[in-house]
């Protein structure tokens, strides 16, 4: 593990500019480290030849003193549910195991235009349905912070973007892209001790992100600092003619103030009482209280607020998710792309065998349940009702953010209820139960489309990261990340713990 992989993007960029480091050298090291940390299973596929070629091109730009951006020559990783031209994109599923898209997702092409280097595609739960990165056909991803990475004593990385979180936490790349439909960026960020941002719905294009729940999917960002996260957001955000759900207004790049310029006196922080829920670990609760106190001492107004429909979120999400999944998954029929079964008895049989072979149990269950919920006799009772309750959940947020006399700017909550669970405990639960516990704090933000960020705060007694979540009203990323940056500076969490890295490399 070389020290420069632990730098922030700004520092690497200035080292590229003055020649102390080169994109080629850094990329070479990143590839070496990724290979030596294969035990984490963060990557489904490394792309070393491509990465070294892109690094060489970047190096030439630096030699000509014409870098494309601050991200030029910076190794990044992308979750394997974003299309990458000529690089397989599998969704960790047998259905897409041999799928090679001819085009890049918008997020990927914007990162390429900025000169970043694609180190590889990262692991996930199949089709991003999960909260642990435990059921990929390529095997589960491990958490670098595990006390013991061997046998059955290791911890999950969280999910579904566990590979991206794990790669950033292990210092294999400076940032990674994930997706967030119900918490899949924030949850693994929380467990792996890195920053995980879910932007406002529509701020970042979904074009080329293989859909899970179109009305909630958002590309997410993993980084080891809030500043690095902002740099990536500034490159990928903004309208896209290829995604009609992107917000039309031009994106104004964020610029965070220096920490000592941040004044919390005019900021009001809400603590939603409903997030103090069953299953919240005492350590997470203590961390939450402590940060609320620190904010208050620094002059912020901290008050308890209520989001009364929070507990309904898990059920509503589950219904809407399965209904949209049923519709989205219809495209995998063995005809146009993806897996095709060797079954020529009839077209119907071909569809059926293809889908039976291609999908895992989780995907099949969601398709079946979704179709059941959408039956004419059930549609109003479940789907329509869920949409109405979704509206109530979104209105809860609007009320606390916009009511004149009691408005708050930022909500502070836990991200996950506990530290990262042991794989053996987590995998004893069904996918449904896993998500019901893991996503309690994260799903409401997807339901309302608002931005949310998870930041690591401290280590638990077991030496595992504990994180908190901040949420704000839509398109208020500037304030959200400013407060996150302030907290980050107070807690000085070391995202890269070298002891863990050495143990993992052995
Ligand atoms: N755990 C949730 C699910 O399985 C969220 C997944 C996600 O955000 N991609 O649906």
What can you tell me about this protein's structure?
With 506 residues, this protein is an alpha/beta fold. Helices cover 39% and strands 12% of the residues. The chain has 17 helices and eleven strands. The chain has helices at residues 9-17, 23-36, 48-63, 106-113, 162-169, 186-192, 226-236, 282-297, 313-328, 347-358, 361-373, 376-402, 423-426, 431-438, 443-448, 477-491, 498-505, and strands at residues 43-46, 75-79, 117-122, 175-180, 195-198, 218-223, 268-272, 301-305, 410-414, 452-459, 465-472. An eleven-stranded mixed β-sheet has the order 1-3-2-4-6-5-10-11-9-7-8, sandwiched between helices. Strand 7, helix 8 and strand 8 (301-305) form a beta-alpha-beta unit. Bound molecules: glutamine. Glutamine (GLN) binds at residues 128-131, 160, 179-184, 212, 321, 435, 439. The site of glutamine has 15 residues, from strand 4.
Record keyword descriptors for this entry.
mitochondrion; binds glutamine; globular; alpha/beta; Amidase signature (AS) enzymes; single chain; 39% helix; 506 residues; 11-stranded mixed beta sheet; 17 helices; ATP binding
CATH topology of the domain at 3-239 and 451-505: Amidase signature (AS) enzymes
Distance between the terminal alpha carbons, to the nearest Å? Answer: 12 Å
Quaternary assembly: single chain
CATH architecture of the domain at 3-239 and 451-505: Alpha-Beta Complex
How would you describe the shape?
globular
**Low-confidence spans:** none
CATH superfamily descriptor of the domain at 3-239 and 451-505: Amidase signature (AS) domain
Indicate the proportion of strand residues: 5-15%
Main location: mitochondrion
Function: Allows the formation of correctly charged Gln-tRNA(Gln) through the transamidation of misacylated Glu-tRNA(Gln) in the mitochondria. The reaction takes place in the presence of glutamine and ATP through an activated gamma-phospho-Glu-tRNA(Gln).
InterPro entries: Amidase, Amidase_dom, AS_sf, GatA
GO molecular function: ATP binding; glutaminyl-tRNA synthase (glutamine-hydrolyzing) activity
């Amino acid at each position: 593990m070389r020290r420069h992989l632990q730098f922030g993007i700004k520092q690497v960029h200035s080292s590229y500019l003055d020649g102390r480091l080169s994109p080629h050298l850094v990329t070479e090291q990143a590839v070496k480290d990724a290979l030596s940390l294969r035990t984490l299973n963060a990557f489904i596929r490394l792309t070393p030849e491509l990465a070294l070629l892109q690094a060489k091109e970047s190096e030439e730009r630096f030699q000509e003193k014409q870098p494309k951006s601050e991200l030029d020559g910076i190794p990044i990783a992308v979750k394997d549910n974003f299309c990458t031209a000529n690089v397989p994109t599998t969704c960790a599923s047998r259905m897409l195991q041999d799928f090679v898209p001819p085009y890049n997702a918008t997020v990927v092409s914007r990162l390429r235009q900025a000169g970043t280097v694609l180190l590889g595609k990262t692991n996930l739960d199949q089709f991003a349905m999960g909260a642990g990165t435990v059921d990929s056909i390529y095997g589960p991803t491990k958490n670098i912070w595990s006390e013991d990475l061997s046998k059955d004593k290791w911890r999950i990385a969280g999910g579904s973007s566990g590979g991206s979180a794990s790669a950033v936490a292990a210092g294999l790349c400076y940032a990674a892209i994930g997706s967030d439909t119900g918490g899949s960026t924030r949850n693994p960020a929380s467990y792996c001790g890195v920053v995980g941002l879910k932007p406002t719905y529509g701020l970042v294009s979904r074009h080329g992100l293989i859909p899970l729940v179109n009305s909630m999917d958002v590309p997410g960002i993993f980084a080891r600092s809030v500043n690095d996260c902002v740099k990536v957001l500034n490159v990928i955000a903004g309208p896209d003619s290829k995604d009609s759900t992107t917000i039309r207004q031009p994106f104004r790049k964020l610029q965070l103030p220096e920490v000592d310029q941040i004044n919390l006196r005019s900021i009001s922080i809400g603590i939603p009482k409903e997030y103090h829920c069953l299953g919240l670990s005492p350590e997470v609760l203590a961390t939450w209280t402590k940060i609320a106190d620190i904010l208050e001492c620094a002059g912020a107004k901290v008050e308890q607020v209520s989001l009364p429909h929070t507990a309904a979120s898990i059920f509503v999400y589950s219904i809407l998710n399965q209904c949209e999944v049923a519709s989205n998954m219809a495209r995998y029929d063995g005809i146009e792309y993806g897996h095709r079964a060797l079954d020529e008895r009839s077209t119907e049989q071909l569809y059926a065998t293809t889908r039976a072979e291609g999908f895992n149990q989780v995907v099949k269950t969601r398709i079946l349940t979704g179709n059941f919920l959408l039956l004419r006799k059930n549609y109003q009772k479940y789907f329509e009702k869920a949409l109405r309750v979704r509206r109530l959940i979104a209105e809860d947020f609007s009320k606390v953010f916009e009511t004149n006399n009691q408005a708050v700017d930022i909500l502070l909550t836990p991200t996950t209820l506990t530290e990262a669970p042991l794989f053996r405990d987590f995998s004893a639960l069904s996918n449904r139960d896993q998500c019901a516990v893991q996503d309690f704090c994260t799903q409401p933000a997807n339901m309302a489309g608002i931005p949310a960020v998870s930041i690591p705060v401290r280590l638990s007694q077991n030496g595992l990261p504990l994180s908190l979540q901040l949420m704000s009203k839509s398109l208020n990323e500037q304030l959200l990340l400013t407060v996150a940056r302030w907290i980050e500076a107070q807690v000085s969490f070391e995202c890269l713990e070298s002891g863990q890295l050495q143990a993992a490399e052995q």
